[in-house]
Amino acid sequence: MILAAGRGERMRPLSDRIPKPLLPVAGKALLVHLIESLARAGLRDLVVNYAHLGRQIAAYLGDGGQFGARIAYSPEPEGGLETGGGILQALPLLDSDPFLVVNGDIWTDYPFINLPKTLDGLAHLVLVDNPPHHPQGDFRLKDGRVEAGGTPRLTFSGIGVYRRQLFEHCASGRFPLVPVLRAAMERGQVSGEYYGGRWRDVGTPERLAELNRELAGPGR
């Protein structure tokens, strides 16, 4: 599943007329970079949720065939359902257990083929170095487990593998994912890994421009 329902407040004014996941990075939509990476890893059956300007996303991607994927859509009401609510609503469209969820506003060269096919617990998170805009990080990684407390902290990349059981006590509606993950961490049910490769949270016009300059290469 790719999460693409966010309003993109920090990306305004660009996101006032174009959904953030469709903004161009190195000549193609940010969302297309993710879809093509997933397809290369053999992850071709995808669910994309949308809310803000979501019809643009569905019209742009179609059935996903041109990108080597098969896409189903999970439309949400205006304002969206946040990350947790969006995943819960999409569960009937997800036919695997566990399943992968990726934030639609990241760019990365993470090798998705390396993600675990089975889980020792309820979730598995990919953690990265803390970027300048998020120096405090999110979670601690210790002996292959992710903990809500303690230091040093790493940043959650927005790449996670989840079991359906993680959401069994959640009620439908709008709610974030992080409290659900924290509760699972308290029970020792979240594994994790560190990725030191290229990863960008493309959350603002400035970071979008910076990534485009980086990918254009020297002298361009």
Keywords:
220 residues; alpha/beta; Spore Coat Polysaccharide Biosynthesis Protein SpsA, Chain A; seven-stranded mixed beta sheet; two-stranded antiparallel ribbon; 5 helices
Number of contiguous helices? 5
**Secondary structure category:** alpha/beta
CATH architecture field: Alpha-Beta Complex
Distance between the termini: 35 Å
The profile of the biggest β sheet is: 7 strands, mixed
Taken as a percent bin, the fraction of beta residues is 15-25%
With strands numbered from the N-terminus, the spatial order across the biggest sheet is 5-4-1-6-11-8-12
Description of the structure:
This protein has 220 residues and is an alpha/beta fold. It has a single domain, classed as Spore Coat Polysaccharide Biosynthesis Protein SpsA, Chain A. It is built from five helices and 13 strands. It has helices spanning 30-40, 54-61, 82-90, 178-186, 205-216, and strands spanning 2-3, 24-25, 28-29, 45-50, 70-75, 99-103, 106-108, 123-128, 140-142, 145-147, 155-162, 190-194, 199-201. The strands form four sheets. Strands 5-4-1-6-11-8-12 form a seven-stranded mixed β-sheet, with helices on both faces. The radius of gyration is 17 Å and the shape is globular. The termini are far apart.
Question: Could you outline the blueprint of secondary structure elements for this entry?
Answer:
Layout: E1 2-3, E2 24-25, E3 28-29, H1 30-40, E4 45-50, H2 54-61, E5 70-75, H3 82-90, E6 99-103, E7 106-108, E8 123-128, E9 140-142, E10 145-147, E11 155-162, H4 178-186, E12 190-194, E13 199-201, H5 205-216
Parallel strand pairs: 1-4, 1-6, 4-5, 8-12
Antiparallel strand pairs: 2-3, 6-11, 7-13, 8-11, 9-10
